Amino acid sequence: MTDDIPIRPRLVLATTLLPDGEAGVSMLRAALGAGDVATVIVDPAGRPDAAFQDFAEGIVPIVQEAGAAAIVAEDTRCAGRSRADGFHTSAGGIAALREAVGRLAPKLIVGGSGFNTRHEALEAGETMPDYLMFGKLGADNDAEPLRRNLELAEWWAAIVEIPCIVQGGADLAALPLAIETRAEFILLSAAVFGEPSGVAARVREANRLFDAVRQGEAA
Questions:
Q1: Using CB atoms within 10 A as the burial measure, which of 119, 153, 174, 203 is most buried?
Q2: What EC number(s) would the UniProt record show (predicted)?
Q3: Tell me: the pLDDT tens digits for 51-78?
Q4: 100 vs 93: CA distance, rounded Å
């Protein structure tokens, strides 16, 4: 990767703040219809197994119909039953990630998070996941992304071919900090789904900022 080639990241959304039922579906449809979304990570967010299964089965087809990949977090059975495109483990365990890759790939996209040092990240990369994520689902309450995640993503993107996702903050005004890491994907949840109104406008704004990178504009 050369420093003079701009990287136009793609948007990943996490469903952490989506409510159950039609209210959540409406917010998700608004987001997916407003601009480029590469992936949606379907987060249990504290739901019991049965409730999460129902939630995922309602969400996954909507994501796929919009042309995005639906990745179910934490529950491999739920990922299979909902016919998701992938599985995400956030425990930060090398053995768990290796087991998931060996059992589910290449049929499913497999990625993980919870690797908080360079050494841990490199060990995780040796399991050959489809991506690593720097951040923690539900941990984007602050306006700016966590500095450690930004630093890890910038380092990773510069030296490793496996794509990475970096978690953004709760305020789109801070999105340039994540863009500057040159990560291939940026995860947003609170910044998009933090309020039930204005979801589509926030997705459009995120993509505008991504496009500005490609066009060489100031954010």
A1: 153
A2: 2.5.1.3
A3: 999 999 999 999 999 999 999 999 999 9
A4: 11
